[in-house]
């Protein structure tokens, strides 16, 4: 059965690194050895050299053009991906540089490549075995003495991407040879067993010359003399691997990030639940404006498994507070079902581990295939005594007692099954290897701890970047030196622009003057548009915590209500009912909400307009249940507040909540005081986002959301949401039609005087560079088709479209000097615009920092304009982007993302609360929502089963304008059927 050791060498302890999404590489794969313990199976016999088999088709050794997967590690822009698209299109080029605002010089965390390789570089195609071998085996073969001897003939510094490509400084004839890993390790093939021939550990390596890398083509593209082609891709791909070659050998490599194998205490922290966070360095080579290459260097934070025994990890995964409770709940359930923790235990699968019961000489690394349903006392196998040949059937528990004199302390835990056939270990003898990434969604406690660890002010972040540069050590990198590549270690300086801040406009002509502070307050301010229907029917419900102790007293709720409503009236709110019913003491949350809904309606003899829900904690599960119940069961708006803030009863907190409260009742907080008319013709803004489930949540659908501006100033928005298949980024044609049609119809009737808009902005979030072409050919085409259908009565009035992608997931950061361009924390002031040096050489993109960082280092938003049929002036568009960030209706500070996209992001996240859970088993442990079933169309037109959202209760008693006019989209319109009033309920 199982077996291993108590001490290991340093090499054995290091976990294999995962790279570019491939399988983990490590000794378990590099040193295949049949299991010789009881109950094992030697597996399929293979006597031929791997890679020479005629039964398996070899991979083409000379793929051309370069595979699209190479694009993952380098920021090329949309032009590179356009090469591989079945529907290529022309992306918009930069018109001009902006003259808006004032100039300022700031530093950006990028470094100029001062010297390129000038020697000849030759690319080779490499096939190891059949070409489909696991990454760990490929690494083991490439690290062999035989391979090192063969590639020495190509000159120093042969680079291999651990895939199919290699580079060298000389051209040599094609060659093919065999590597025997058993000979390399001084081992002999295992003896024949069960009539099977011995398994040979031989692998064929084929190296074939492919082409000469033309770096001159890359330079020509940067100078604008050639278009992007496959040669440029090959050149940048080589430079990327040249940059990665040395650090990937000494550090843990996760795509473009590198982490120390033995980090100092400041670079790691425990997050609870068997997870630790580590701080590393990120680097990526980029084509940049200014006819140059730059290397973007930043801090990278990631989560890893804490290297503990599996039984301790199982305990921490369970979330139980004590081992006694864990022991009583981790057994198989009385009805024969698996332990309730099995979904969490399965997270251990595919990880590397070593065992600690065989002695210090054991260095083998194993891989978890799955977690068995059987425990150490349930799983039995035959053991043959070598001396007598006697066969005894015994359990794993008995085997460890007899073989190793180890009485298992937790035999009820499920066994760990390895990749080798019939090899299982008890959890308590398995120890997780170092440096293995934790790919699952963090819980609320882990997230809070991760934020504390990752957040750092600009001076601290810059110091961490400098520490990362020391790890990369470009000046002494033997590969960079050998190929003649030199990178400036000093951050580059760029000429930025500081845009003038706008003034938020409130009722009665009052304005706020945030200047460059990026903040203002609501004292003495009246909302630009209060609720147009007085607040008559509403209620307050206090949800009980698990210990059933009321989180607030009645007097505290009364005091908060009085202060809240007094402030609301001061901000212009219309309130007729100052004494709504207060419901508390109901142990069931759903029943408490229902009770409050009925009492509020009965007291006012009117369908309730709003429920205020007082929460005892920040549980995401409770919050989602509240929103689902209010949105889908009752069709009523809800406002959640924390009990701790009710107790404090601070006016500033009340005013902040009132911004949301007022918007949910159809009001508007403020708008910008435009110095110039933004929209010289009728304009509509559409925002869109698709949110995806966390890794590992395979049953969770992606949620698509679209928002539409609902007034002439584009300050109020409505939203629609729908499921969009599993991890499908492009919004399906049917979803676009279903979500947009009722919103566009309302806009035409109430804003456009029966006509479609003349100018249409489409802001899209979450789309990668590789999806730009699909965005234009699919989503934009679908929107145009819908507009044509909606404007059939006005065929000559087709809207001109401006398409912009907003991206927050990047590593560009600004480091301004103190003064006009920087605030007291070292962050850029709101309105900092960068369009040179780190942007694309030719495409139309900018980086805009429109917000004030609450904590940490500000991350600018990357805006990429793909289409502009209206031919907007550069300054007008950039000012529109920035100033509209001051129109976010729930904040007294500009936001970091254009509001139309921000609202879409909020709506898509809210939609996860609306999934129909009735058909699914919900785990009490992981508290992750899992989707029901419904048929929708995915991007490729095929049918895919994914969760349809629950139907929403029609909102009788609340005007349509209040529903889709809400800037916060708390009631999300999905189709026109949702707008039909429902029959009145009997509140008597």
Automatic annotation (TrEMBL):
Stretches with biased composition (Low complexity): 57-69
> Known Gene3D superfamilies for this protein?
3.40.50.2300, paz domain, Ribonuclease H-like superfamily/Ribonuclease H
Domain called PAZ: residue spans: 322-434
Segments forming a coiled coil: none
> Where are the stretches annotated Disordered?
1-69
Which residues does the UniProt record annotate as the domain Piwi? 610-916
Tell me which domain of life the UniProt entry assigns to the organism this sequence originates from: Eukaryota
InterPro entries, per this entry? Answer: ArgoL1, ArgoL2, Argonaute_Mid_dom, Argonaute_N, PAZ_dom, PAZ_dom_sf, Piwi, Piwi_ago-like
Q: In what ranges is there compositional bias, type Basic residues? A: 1-10
Q: Which GO terms describe its molecular function?
A: RNA binding
Task: Report the family membership.
Answer: Belongs to the argonaute family.
Q: What is this protein called?
A: Uncharacterized protein
């Amino acid at each position: 059965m199982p077996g291993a050791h108590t001490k290991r060498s340093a090499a054995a302890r290091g976990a294999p690194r995962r790279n570019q999404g491939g399988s983990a590489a490590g000794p378990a794969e590099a040193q295949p050895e049949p299991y010789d313990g009881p109950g094992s199976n030697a597996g399929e016999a293979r006597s031929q050299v791997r890679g020479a088999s005629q039964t398996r088709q070899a991979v083409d050794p000379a793929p051309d053009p370069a595979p699209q997967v190479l694009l993952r590690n380098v920021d090329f822009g949309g032009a590179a991906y356009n090469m591989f698209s079945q529907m290529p299109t022309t992306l918009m080029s930069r018109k001009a540089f902006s003259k808006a605002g004032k100039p300022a010089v700031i530093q950006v965390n990028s470094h100029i490549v001062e010297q390129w390789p000038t020697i000849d570089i030759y690319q080779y195609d490499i096939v190891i075995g059949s070409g489909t071998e696991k990454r760990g085996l490929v690494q083991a073969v490439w690290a062999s003495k035989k391979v090192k001897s063969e590639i020495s003939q190509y000159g120093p510094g042969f680079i291999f991407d651990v895939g199919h490509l290699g580079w060298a400084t000389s051209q040599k004839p094609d060659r093919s040879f065999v590597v025997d890993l058993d000979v390399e390790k001084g081992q002999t093939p295992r003896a024949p067993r069960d009539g099977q021939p011995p398994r040979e550990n031989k692998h064929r390596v084929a190296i074939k010359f492919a082409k000469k890398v033309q770096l001159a083509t890359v330079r020509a593209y940067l100078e604008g003399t050639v278009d992007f082609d496959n040669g440029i891709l090959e050149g940048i791909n080589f430079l990327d691997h040249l940059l990665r070659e040395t650090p990937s050998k000494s550090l843990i490599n996760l795509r473009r990030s590198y982490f120390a194998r033995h980090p100092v205490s400041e670079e790691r922290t425990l997050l609870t639940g068997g997870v630790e966070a580590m701080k590393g360095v990120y680097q990526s080579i980029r084509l940049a404006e200014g006819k140059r290459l730059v290397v973007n260097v930043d801090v990278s934070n990631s989560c890893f498994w804490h290297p503990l025994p599996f039984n301790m990890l199982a305990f921490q995964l369970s979330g139980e507070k004590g081992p006694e409770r864990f022991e009583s709940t981790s057994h198989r359930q009385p009805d024969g079902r698996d332990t309730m923790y099995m979904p969490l235990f399965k997270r251990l699968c595919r990880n590397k581990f070593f065992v600690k019961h065989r002695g210090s000489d054991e260095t083998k690394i194993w891989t978890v295939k799955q977690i068995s349903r059987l425990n150490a006392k349930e799983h039995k196998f035959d053991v043959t005594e070598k001396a007598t040949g006697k066969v005894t059937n015994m359990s794993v528990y008995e085997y460890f007692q007899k073989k190793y004199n180890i009485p298992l302390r937790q035999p009820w835990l499920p066994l760990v099954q390895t990749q080798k056939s019939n090899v299982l270990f008890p959890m308590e003898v398995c120890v997780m290897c170092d440096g293995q990434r934790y790919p699952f969604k963090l819980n609320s406690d882990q997230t809070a701890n991760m934020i504390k660890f990752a957040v750092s002010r600009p001076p601290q972040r810059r110091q961490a970047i400098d520490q990362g540069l020391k790890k990369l050590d470009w000046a002494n990198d033997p590969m960079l030196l050998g190929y003649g590549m030199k990178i400036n270690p000093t951050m580059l300086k760029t000429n930025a622009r500081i845009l003038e801040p706008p003034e938020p406009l409130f009722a009665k002509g009052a304005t706020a003057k945030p200047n460059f502070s990026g903040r203002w307050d609501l004292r003495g301010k009246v909302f630009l548009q209060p609720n147009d229907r007085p607040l008559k029917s509403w209620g307050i419900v206090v949800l009980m915590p698990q210990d059933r102790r009321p989180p607030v007293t009645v007097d505290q709720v009364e005091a908060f209500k009085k202060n809240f409503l007094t402030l609301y009236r001061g901000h212009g709110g219309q309130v007729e009912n100052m004494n709504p019913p207060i419901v508390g003491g109901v142990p069931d949350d759903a029943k408490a909400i229902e009770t409050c809904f009925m009492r509020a309606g009965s007291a006012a003899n009117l369908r309730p307009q709003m429920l205020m829900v007082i929460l005892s904690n920040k549980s995401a599960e409770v919050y989602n249940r509240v929103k689902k119940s209010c949105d889908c069961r009752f069709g009523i708006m809800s406002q959640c507040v924390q009990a701790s803030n009710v107790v404090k009863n601070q006016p500033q907190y009340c005013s902040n909540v009132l911004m949301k409260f007022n918007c949910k009742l159809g009001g508007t907080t403020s708008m910008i005081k435009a110095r110039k008319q933004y929209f010289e013709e009728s304009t509509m803004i559409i925002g869109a986002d698709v949110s995806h489930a966390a890794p590992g949540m395979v049953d969770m659908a992606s949620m698509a959301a679209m928002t539409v501006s609902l007034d002439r100033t584009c300050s109020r928005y409505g939203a629609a949401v729908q499921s969009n298949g599993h991890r499908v980024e492009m919004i399906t044609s049917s979803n676009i039609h279903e979500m947009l049609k009722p919103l566009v119809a309302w806009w035409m009737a109430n804003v456009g005087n029966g006509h479609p808009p003349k100018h249409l902005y489409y802001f899209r979030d979450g789309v990668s560079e590789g999806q730009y072409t699909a965005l234009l050919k699919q989503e934009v085409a679908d929107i145009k088709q819908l507009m044509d259908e909606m404007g059939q009565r006005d065929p000559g009035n087709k809207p001109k479209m401006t398409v912009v992608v907003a991206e927050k997931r990047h590593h560009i950061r600004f480091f301004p000097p103190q003064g006009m361009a920087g605030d007291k924390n070292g962050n850029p002031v709101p309105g900092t615009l960068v369009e040179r040096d780190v942007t694309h050489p030719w495409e139309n993109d900018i980086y805009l920092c429109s917000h004030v960082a609450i904590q940490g280092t500000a991350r600018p938003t990357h805006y990429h304009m793909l289409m502009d049929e209206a031919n907007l002036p550069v300054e007008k568009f950039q000012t529109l982007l920035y100033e509209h960030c001051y129109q976010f209706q729930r904040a007294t500070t500009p936001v970091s993302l254009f509001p139309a996209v921000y609202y879409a992001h909020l709506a898509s996240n809210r939609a996860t609360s609306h999934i129909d859970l009735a058909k699914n088993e919900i785990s009490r442990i992981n508290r992750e929502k899992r989707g029901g079933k419904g048929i929708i169309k995915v991007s490729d037109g095929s049918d895919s089963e994914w969760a349809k959202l629950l139907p929403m209760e029609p909102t009788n008693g609340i005007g349509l304008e209040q529903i889709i006019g809400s800037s916060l989209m708390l009631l999300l319109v999905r189709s026109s059927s949702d707008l039909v009033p429902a029959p009145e309920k009997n509140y008597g």
